[in-house]
Known about the structure:
Layout: H1 3-25, H2 31-55, H3 60-76, H4 91-112, H5 122-126, H6 133-146, H7 151-163, H8 167-180, H9 185-198, H10 205-214, H11 221-234, H12 238-251, H13 259-273
Helix pairs in contact: 1-4, 2-3, 3-7, 6-7, 7-8, 8-9, 9-10, 10-11, 11-12, 12-13
Amino acid sequence: MSLGLAIAMLAMTLLAVALLLGPLVLNRRAAASRDAYNLAVYRDQLAEIERDVGRGVLEPGDAEMAKAEIGRRILALTPVQAPAASPRTPLAFAMIAVILVPFAAWTLYWDLGAPNLPDEPHDSVAAGPHLDINDALKQLAAHLADHPDDLKGWLLLARTERDLGRYSEAADGYRHAVELSNQNPEIAGDWGEAQILAANGTVTPSAVAAFKIALADSASAPRSRFYLALADYQAGDVKKALQEWVDLEADSPADATWMPMLRKQIADAAKSLGVDPATLKTSAGAPRKAAETQSPSR
């Protein structure tokens, strides 16, 4: 081994030791604090996704997949019961271990290593063990077979299946989650949407029932109202659907992320009825609050 390489390795070892000793000397934050920080980061990411959709730089479908991924990460932050803690290792012992282990490894490499050998072929490295998503899902399904009351497990399964485009499986997972959560409105909304995806865009009667439950959640009520109106539209009652969408528009913030999609639906429905979208009014008789901003349907 050349002197230059030895010096470089020694410098990297010293840096690694310094980085490892830092957390041992300083008081580390509790796991709950780290989770709180991570949760704040994930919430900021969710907000950023909504802003990207609003700016038109992210498609709604891609946004849903991104939000599902962040949702799984948030779900993973939920504390689980840990086994009884073992006695703490004395700080001095930990510091000695941190110092001795890398230098012992470095000494062995000095005697036995072969830095001049060529790298191992990439294919042989890539062929090593890895986690397959299908294997993970099989393990999760087996877990749920033994623990059918695991709400978080069903949610994880449903969200993963949805991300993979397996919408029927996702809908079934959400169905279990709705039952276990005592018909949680937010989960019911996800269930309804998964059913629509599984039905290639058709709002099925079961999806309608799910969205009626989801109306109780004020945060996701606009989604439920939109799809319930879409059900009327698909059933042939275009006039009723159009009125429901106009009312939803009036109740929504002007900068709501769903506004572009909602206004397009209004324009399309109005066109099919031969109605000028700018003349539409709410059920209470109020004119559309932003009728002048509407663009014709493409």
